[in-house]
Amino acid sequence: MVSARDVAEILSKIPLQVWNEIVKKEPEWIHMHKFLKRYGFGKFAVLMIVAGLNDYQLKGRAEKAYWPPLSNLLEGKPVPKSPEELINILEEFYSKERFSNAKIRRLKRFLSSSLAQELWTSKPEDVAKDFVKIWYRLAETMKQKGNAKTIAFAMKCLGISLLMAGETNFSFEKIPIPVDYKVKEFTKRLGVEFKNDDDIRNFWSAVLEELKTRVDINMIHLDSLIWQIGTLDRDEIIEYFSEFGLENIGRELVEVLR
After folding, report:
1. Name one GO biological process term (predicted).
2. Which among 88, 176, 191 is positioned nearest to 135, based on CA atoms?
3. From 37, 121, 197, 250, which residue has the greatest number of CB atoms within 10 Å?
């Protein structure tokens, strides 16, 4: 079985600049970045969190079935003046999604919360300073565990919002990788034995801990990479890294896959 150190050894050869480009390839960056300037940071941060909270049990792949249609809907709507107005805008979208009732309840639970109200007028530096506290409050607001996939992913979306705004000084270390199908599949392909999602989280936390001794990244970077390559075949992984001029790293990585 490949170890966390083995994986980190390969991935540590990726330059920081490329890690940052990998994050920009995420669908939530590609399709939502344009709303940052239009909404302003606080409103945009709230939008990104709620979109992250409801990114589950989709009608298809997120990069096609979720983020593009959500973006298209928002483009045709005015900038909301309050979280309540954002509920009205997004209710139209989630009413057509799978598990619509549950997603609308989650939408209203978050956007009616004091946390959403405070974030609505927040500045990037304040969110960065209170990032871990916001994580705890979000889990409490949604009545979920902090390591739940949707909570972790919503925090990733908030972190991406900060990166879009040019804010990098925030702590993401305690927040685990959002364990979804692609992350599970790639973990399996590495031959890692796991009994549950916690084992997967622990493995990737160990990879990140090793990586951070060599390159200044966080779980947003690592999750973005694993999500993007998680279900690619060997040739596609090599091609993916070749786009960054890192074909050799792609070849090294596929060598340790089952």
Report:
1. DNA repair
2. 176
3. 250
